[in-house]
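QA checklist item 7 of 12: single-chain prediction sanity check.
[x] sequence parsed
[x] length recorded as 194
[x] structure emitted
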Amino acid sequence: MVAGTLQLLAVLGAIVAVATRPAGVAAEPGPATFALRVGFIGPFLGAVAMVSGSVSGYLGLGVDGLLVAAGFVAVVAALALGDRLPVLPARVRRGLLVPFLFVCAGIFDGLAADLLQELDVGELIGALRVDATGFGLFVVGLLLAGIAAFYAALIVSPRVLVERQSPAGWLVWPVRFVLFLASALLGIGWLTLL
């Protein structure tokens, strides 16, 4: 019950953060940056759906559809209204988003652990060398693509939609993902905190 309530508050906080804009910040700097952020709408709604499903499971209520609809309305309003959205200080918006990020990180950690728990890196590398057809590489590509999709939904999209990224920020996310993969495959726990 407590976990479900905390997750409900977290998803509502993320929706409020997306449906507002930071005080004193000008409109989007250009169409390229705007287009990059728009690309994270689907993953964000996926994250809202996953957390909402967890909320429904913990609370025993069918609120997941309602929460996803509220997230969708917030995203559409943010796109349509832009600089006419209600204003909140940037610190408050970040504070509203942090619990959602923690919940999403927990979900992502569980998904990644389930996908990678039986993976033997040495055996995988051996299979890639022996297999001349490229099938091993294909399977690894699918595994990485699946993990990357969840990473984009649960880790990157909430922050990208709420906090404007610097040009260098767009380069940092792939590096963080590679560090995560390295830490997961090598069992280095402190890197997973990145």
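[x] summary fact logged: Residues 2-193 form one domain.
[ ] second reviewer sign-off
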